[in-house]
Amino acid sequence: MEEDNQCTKPHAILVPLSLQGHVIPFTNLAVKLATNGFTITFVNTQYIHHQITKSQPNNKTEQDDIFAAARKSGLDIRYKTVSDGFPLAFNRFQNLDQFLEGHLHVYPAHVDELVGDLVQSDPSINCFIADTFHTWPETIANKYNLVNVSFWTQPALVLSIYYHLDLLRQNGHFGFHDKREDSIDYIPGVQAIEPKDLMSHLQATDLSSPMLRIIYKAFHEVKRADFILINTVQELESETLSALHEKQPTYAIGPVFPSEPTKSIVATNLMSEFDCTQWLKTKPHGSVLFISFGSYAQVTTKDFEEIAHGLLLSKVSFIWVLRPDTTSYEETISYPLDLTMRLKTEG
Q1: Which among 85, 199, 281, 346 would be 20 to 30 A from 95, CA to CA?
Q2: Structural domain tally of the chain?
Q3: Cα separation of 156 and 152, whole Å?
């Protein structure tokens, strides 16, 4: 009987997209599932692993396992890394199109090989949970007879828009140089929105770009998943979730956070962490503005300066997360002088 229980214990491989905003919720999902009896094999790219270990304050070595502390706490989470097809020193953002082509044509082969080796060495693996933005989960899951689960880390409303790209094209709101400008009111579970409010990727007109080819393939692929999990709250997006659920099994499982957000037992930051909790405690509740463009998105220098001057004029306390490449992958961001002076003044 004990052997039967071991055989039926769920064992999932998790493969996030290689961006900060995807690695964190995948890590939190891994911990949540392991806490509820799953065995987890978590797969990072070697580049992401390098960025995480490099950002740690105690200079951890490249051989570190980011889930070591989780295992010591009793969670069955194994850790693997895989090549994304490029050397560590290759600048993925400065050579974005080349990197995205590799994401389409090279990276999947490395994941396929790793999953094949894992399944061969451990037949208990029965589930494959991959980021919705990946273009190959259905192929790999079917090849190794695994349950195919797509994990969407953003709001359900955004997924529904991507999910219905065919409707946007049919109605002339996407993929045309002369796009329609009337409201988009035909996407299931999404109230009317204006074309200018579509995601930036859907503002593009060059459908042959690597990014749009990835989007097309990924959101065709997700329709073949056995389940879609979304990092959202049922009560907040019930209409959108119901519309998606009519297409295929879709479940809100969010928000997927660690039990203590400031004390995660798994290192996930791709850049050095700065703890501002003591400063926050000196401010009135609800008085601090938080601004972040994530680990990938950029703004123009003009937009950056307008935001900076708006913050100065507002006189509000704020935390602004700025990457060196916020405005350009080729040069480090330059701060407006008056913003620099204010930051120096406030310490």
Answers
A1: 199
A2: 2
A3: 8
